Every structure is written in C-alpha cells, then in structure tokens.
Amino acid sequence: MKLFHSITDFHSTKKTILTLGTFDGVHIGHKKILGRITQNTENGKYESLVLTFFPHPRMVLQEKSEIKLLNTISEKSRLLKETEIENLVIHPFDEGFSRLTAEEFVSTILVDQFHIQKIIIGYDHRFGRNRTANIDILIAFGAQYGFEVEQISAQEIQDVSVSSTKIRKALLDGNMALANEYLGYTYFLTGEVVKGKQLGRTIGFPTANIQIEEDYKLIPKNGVYVVKTVIDQKEVFGMMNIGFNPTVNGQKQTIEVNLFDFDKAIYGEKLQISLLKYLREEQKFGSVDLLKEQLNLDKKTALEFVENL
C-alpha cells in the first residue's frame, strides 16, 4: 500500500475507486466496506483509494472534544496496510479544509486530483462547508462530472456504528472477548518503554512502563490483563496493570507490563502490547506482601490462559 500525507501528494495515471471516512478501529464492519472498494477495481483497471483525515475533525471543530480513538494514526495506517487497499491518503484536517464547499471538494479533489471513477459512501454521509451536502447532491455531482456513486446501505452503516460503539464500551468494561470479536483482531496499545519507580523489581515482578504519547488513544478499563508482545521477532507473554498502584499510593495512571521469562533491558524500545484477557480490577492491598501474593495468583491464572490459546 502506498501512503500519502496530503491529497496533493497523490498522483496516478489510473482512475480511482474510493471511499472516505475515519475508519477508527479498522474493524470487521469497516473491512466489509473496504472489500467493496477492492472488488470494484476490475483487476487493476482502476486503483483503490481510502481518504482519511488527521486530526479527527471533531478535534478541530469541537473546542472541548474529548474524543478517544481506538487507533492512533500510525496504528490505523498499519491496519489499513494489511488490507488490499492500494492507496491511503491521510490529509491534514484544519478549519480551512472544513470551509471547502461541496462543489469545490468534488471538482478539485475527487475529480481533478483523484480522477474518480466511483465513490462508495454511506447513505448518511454529509460533506462540504458546514456538512450541508448529502448523498443526493453527491449523486447529482456524479452525473455532472462523470463518476458513479454507490451507496452503502443503512443496515451496513448501522453495523459499522454499532460495532464502534460496542468496541468502545467493551474496552471500558474490560470485556476483551467482545471487543476483540468486533475488531477482528486483538486490541493493542503502542508505547515506549520508560523508566518507572522500579518498585515491581523489589517484589519479584519487574515491569516495563509503557508511555503512550497520543493522549487521544482509548485506554481500556483499569485493572490487570493477560497480554502479548513481540520482541526480537519472538512472542512474549505477560500481564499488565493499568491504574494508579493504590497499594503504594500512586498518584497518576500508569501502564506496566510484567513479561514472563524475560529479563532483557528494553528501555527506549517501542512495544505493541496486545490485550488478550481482563483478569481482575485494580485493588488496594493492606501490605506489599499481600500484593505480591495476589500477583503470584494472577501470574498462575495468566499462564493457564496462555497454555490454552
């Protein structure tokens, strides 16, 4: 897949079959729509293209938006690369772009830049300045400029919407089985390993502290998880705590991973941590010894889960 960081960076001699949207999560509902794009390329006659935006439009247009996304922009790019889409355009979204009229968007971007043959879009999609243009206006533009418009049905759009809503709720409830079922893959966090207080090392559970740079990334429910990562091309399992470490009076949320049978120094490395199962809620213990006792039980449960994968 070719990646472009601006609409004007894209150039092709072929006409395109495209769709546009946020595609947050790149989940099973999105993949059905993306599959429609690739099926319409007629074995290479046209090129498939996905147009998405960053920052998320709500981050720009809604001053107090606290939207949390399932993917960072780099995570979304990696997930889309795993599909058969040939071109991904991530265009910087700003207030200037939002002021384009519907016809300016169609004529200068879809027609002049993308040489559009066909757009596959939701029946409820709205575009142009103040989102005033709807699917009927897009169809009229298609007739005027010579491209096709295929509507994604209300049921399919509802499936995508329901999937996204259920995934977010499941993650905030700690229901990893449901979240991962709707995603079609295991939800993951990507962050750099940084130095923490190293308290875990003193009780036999050294942890890698994961720092996630993007504050818009959705962090699942606080608690203990069974996790997996890949280091030096090898799968490494472990358990992770998201929370405030109440037993030692922690003051801020941290993400700490204890990797099983692993003792290599990995400070500064970027890890992708896949969340396999939620084990329990974070709790405050009466002493560090009681915490250590519980961590031993957690590890036993986690290893049993891993053995049955």
Automatic annotation (TrEMBL):
Pathway: Cofactor biosynthesis; FMN biosynthesis; FMN from riboflavin (ATP route): step 1/1; Cofactor biosynthesis; FAD biosynthesis; FAD from FMN: step 1/1. GO terms for molecular function: ATP binding; FMN adenylyltransferase activity; riboflavin kinase activity. It is an enzyme of class 2 (transferase). CDD domains: FAD_synthetase_N. Keywords: ATP-binding, FAD, Flavoprotein, FMN, Kinase, Multifunctional enzyme, Nucleotide-binding, Nucleotidyltransferase, Transferase. It catalyses: FMN + ATP + H(+) = FAD + diphosphate; riboflavin + ATP = FMN + ADP + H(+). Residues 182-307 form the Riboflavin kinase domain. Catalyzes the phosphorylation of riboflavin to FMN followed by the adenylation of FMN to FAD. Belongs to the ribF family. This is Riboflavin biosynthesis protein. The lineage of its organism: Bacteria, Pseudomonadati, Bacteroidota, Flavobacteriia, Flavobacteriales.
